[in-house]
Specification:
single chain; 3 helices; about 0% strand
């Protein structure tokens, strides 16, 4: 039987029963490594830069959503106008002639 490549694979830690969670100790170690790598003087600058980047990213996402909503609204308006035009231009909605079809006059 061939095993599917989409089956969930377990890690060695999961097989041994060791949970893969991030606790306060792991977070503290990551912060310590960051402080050691970048130094205490660079951290405020990095935080400011990260904050600016997040702000720009959020504004771009919001702008894309607004643009998408505007495009959808314009498409719906255009579709409704086309439907209205199709309705009024249909043969059933055109004025009927008053002349008899057989060519006789009353």
């Amino acid at each position: 039987m061939v095993k599917s490549s989409f089956t969930a694979r377990t890690t060695n830690y999961e097989r041994r029963g060791i949970p893969m969670t991030v606790g306060p100790l792991e977070i503290g170690l990551v912060v310590l490594v960051i402080v050691l790598l970048f130094g205490a003087r660079k951290l405020p600058e990095l935080a400011r830069s990260l904050g600016r980047s997040m702000r720009i990213f959020k504004s771009e996402v919001k702008e894309m959503k607004d643009e998408n909503n505007t495009t959808n609204e314009q498409g719906q308006i255009a579709a409704s106008k086309k439907n209205d035009e199709d309705f009024w231009n249909s043969p059933e909605m055109q004025p009927r002639s008053t002349k008899p079809v057989d060519g006789t006059q009353n």
